């Protein structure tokens, strides 16, 4: 095990911090998510470290609870996107033929529509609940994972050891999960980091537009929406989630870069 | 122009048109996949059977879906986008005014960001690995990591509220002159520029660096040509195709980024229109806007491919 480079270390530290805050929100947050504890938009004080929000709830607690929702939704959507995208992508690469053609062309079609626009079209008729949100985001995003995993798997599929496994008489499922998947895992893991960040941005954008996480639940995009009117009066409450999102996004990026770097140098460089 | 290029162009253009047609089906189907039907979801669970029946009649839900699709498509092809459910107004007229505003905003963002991105890309290749390169890539990385709406509020807070340099909302009305309009959209344009600039600049840098590894660049360097001239005379012309591609892709991205930025700055464009009507579950408006956004996106991507076909000397002068 080589020494972890400094930026990746910082990334890991901050990412872990965010995850711990999200998991243990119940104990970390000083107040409950919907409790009104003070005046409207109180400045920061000893009781309220970041001040209060547009109806007098503690902003720090809202941010921690909001982080829980945002990170939970983003992780769930990433899992949906990865399971669907990579399983279909690996199968398409191994099976080939018309199934591969059909899936690939369908994915091309979906990707021809901007993700946000398609999500808005679908959400205009769907009830906006957390499971629907996670499914819509995850399935729309699985197109990207499909492309990546199909490309990676087609590279691996022509390797000698896959051929050897075929000659041994192994079944298709064995080849996909025991020969290809382990070797395709590292680029996929790095991609998972990027997809997760994209999901955080996506769910925040949807909530900000009022089509994501519904009140009274808190999430980072929603906090901006609630506090945006304060901006005009010079109250920066709406900017705090931006700092949280940027910090999370950059630290996950640093970790993903490191994972990609490490695996590509192990394999003699995939990208030249 | 030889026959090979013409053939490729015809193929690419027909593919684009086919895609738009398929996307129209997808958007139509996308608004049909739900438990119950549109009428139920518009009126909610408490609707009376009579009002449901009325709305179904009004929406034409009593005829099969494929018939509705073709009558919708037929209307769209003749410029009839239907009427809005919430205010009964003609959708094509409402979109007409707003589309112009949206294009005004996007065009200014493009005019500013494209030259800036290419210049910055050149600079960071010129000073590769030294502090200007590192500074530019750190700033662009953070720009990518912040969603558009947050970038908007950050600028609104510091530039409009604290410094008072620009208006914090971008409302337009017909009595405003050209310069007033331009002043009103300062901040939204700045946000859009910032967001696409980051992507565009990073991709320009990558495209240039890719060319810089070629043998003829090394030859030019060994001849003793100054570095700037090597980049400008030898690397840049050869990376025009990928750079134009990058620019087009980002313009396509701009079309989408506009949606969120318009909502933030209360700008009377297509994006705000779409988001408002998604919340009101006004399906005909959502279908129409979705189709227009997707069509613009597909067309821009198609132009990107056309330019790279035309810019490829191997295709223009086949052996």
Going by CATH, what is the homologous superfamily of chain A?
MetI-like
Radius of gyration of chain A: 22 Å
Beta-strand fraction estimate of chain B:
under 5%
| Shape category of chain B | globular
Q: Helical segment tally of chain B?
A: 15
CATH class of chain B, please? Mainly Alpha
Count all strands of chain A and give the number: 0
Q: Describe the main β-sheet of chain A briefly.
A: none
- Helix- and strand-based class of chain B? mainly alpha
Q: Estimate the helix proportion of chain B, in percent.
A: over 70%
Cα separation of the termini of chain A: 23 Å
Total strand segments of chain B:
0
What's the overall average pLDDT of chain B, rounded? 79
Most extensive chain contact? A-B, 41 and 52 residues
Q: What gross morphology of chain A would you assign?
A: elongated
Mean pLDDT of chain A: 81
- Total number of distinct structural domains of chain B: 1
- Rg over alpha carbons of chain B: 24 Å
Q: Give the topology string of chain B: H per helix, E per strand.
A: HHHHHHHHHHHHHHH
Task: Please give the structural blueprint.
The complex is a heterodimer of chains A (272) and B (319).
Chain A: H1 6-23, H2 25-28, H3 59-95, H4 97-111, H5 115-123, H6 130-157, H7 160-168, H8 172-208, H9 220-231, H10 240-266
Helix pairs in contact in A: 1-3, 1-10, 3-4, 3-6, 3-8, 3-9, 4-6, 5-6, 6-8, 7-8, 8-9, 8-10, 9-10
Chain B: H1 3-30, H2 38-43, H3 49-59, H4 65-77, H5 91-126, H6 131-144, H7 148-162, H8 178-184, H9 186-212, H10 215-222, H11 227-238, H12 240-264, H13 270-279, H14 283-311, H15 313-316
Helix pairs in contact in B: 1-14, 5-6, 5-9, 5-12, 6-9, 7-9, 7-12, 9-12, 10-11, 12-13, 12-14, 13-14
């Amino acid at each position: 095990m080589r020494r972890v480079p400094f930026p990746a270390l910082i990334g890991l530290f901050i990412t872990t911090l965010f995850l711990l805050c999200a998991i243990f929100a119940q104990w970390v947050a000083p107040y409950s998510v919907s409790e009104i504890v003070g005046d409207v938009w109180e400045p920061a004080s000893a009781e309220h470290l970041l001040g209060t929000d547009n109806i007098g709830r503690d902003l720090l607690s809202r941010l921690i609870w909001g982080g829980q929702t945002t990170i939970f939704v983003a992780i769930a959507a990433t899992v949906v996107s990865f399971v669907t995208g990579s399983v279909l992508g690996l199968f398409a690469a191994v099976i080939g033929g018309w199934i591969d053609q059909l899936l690939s062309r369908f994915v091309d079609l979906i990707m021809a529509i901007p993700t946000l626009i398609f999500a808005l079209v679908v959400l205009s008729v769907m009830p906006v609940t957390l499971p629907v949100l996670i499914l819509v985001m995850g399935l729309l995003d699985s197109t990207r994972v499909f492309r990546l995993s199909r490309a990676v798997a087609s590279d691996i599929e022509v390797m000698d050891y896959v051929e050897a496994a075929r000659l041994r008489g192994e079944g298709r499922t064995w080849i996909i999960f025991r020969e290809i998947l382990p070797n395709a895992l590292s680029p996929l893991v790095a991609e998972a980091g990027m997809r997760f960040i994209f999901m955080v941005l996506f769910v925040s954008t949807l909530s900000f537009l009022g089509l994501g996480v519904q009140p009274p639940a808190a999430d980072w995009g929603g906090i901006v929406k609630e506090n945006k009117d304060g901006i005009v009066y010079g109250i920066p409450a709406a900017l705090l989630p931006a700092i949280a999102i940027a910090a999370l996004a950059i630290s996950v990026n640093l970790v993903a870069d490191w994972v990609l770097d490490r695996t590509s140098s192990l394999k003699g460089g995939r990208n030249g | 122009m030889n026959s090979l290029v013409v053939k490729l162009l015809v193929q690419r253009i027909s593919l684009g048109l086919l895609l738009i047609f398929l996307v129209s089906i997808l958007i139509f189907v996308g608004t049909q996949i739900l438990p119950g039907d549109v009428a139920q979801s518009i009126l909610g669970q408490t609707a009376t059977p009579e009002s449901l029946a009325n709305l179904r009649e009004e929406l034409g839900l009593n005829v099969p879906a494929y018939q509705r699709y073709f009558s919708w498509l037929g209307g769209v092809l003749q410029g009839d986008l239907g009427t809005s459910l919430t205010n009964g107004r003609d959708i094509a007229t409402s979109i007409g005014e707003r589309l112009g505003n949206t294009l005004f905003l996007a065009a200014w963002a493009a005019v500013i960001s494209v030259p800036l991105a290419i210049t910055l890309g050149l600079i960071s290749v010129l000073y590769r690995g030294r502090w200007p390169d590192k500074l530019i890539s750190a700033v662009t990385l953070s720009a990518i990591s912040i969603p558009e709406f947050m970038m908007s509020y950050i600028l609104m807070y510091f530039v409009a509220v604290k410094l008072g340099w620009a208006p914090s909302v971008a409302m337009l009305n017909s009595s405003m002159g050209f310069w007033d309009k331009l002043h009103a959209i300062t901040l939204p344009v700045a946000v859009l520029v910032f967001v696409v600039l980051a992507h565009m600049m990073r991709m320009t840098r990558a495209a240039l660096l890719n060319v810089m590894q070629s043998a003829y660049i090394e030859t030019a360097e060994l001849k003793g040509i100054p570095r700037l001239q090597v980049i400008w005379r030898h690397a840049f012309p050869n990376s025009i195709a990928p750079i134009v591609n990058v620019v087009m892709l980002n313009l396509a991205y701009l079309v989408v980024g506009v949606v969120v930025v318009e909502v933030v700055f209360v700008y009377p464009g297509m994006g705000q229109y779409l988001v408002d009507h998604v919340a009101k579950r006004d399906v005909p408006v959502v279908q129409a806007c979705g189709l227009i956004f997707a069509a613009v996106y597909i067309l821009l991507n198609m132009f990107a491919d056309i330019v790279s076909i035309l810019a490829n000397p191997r295709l223009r002068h086949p052996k």
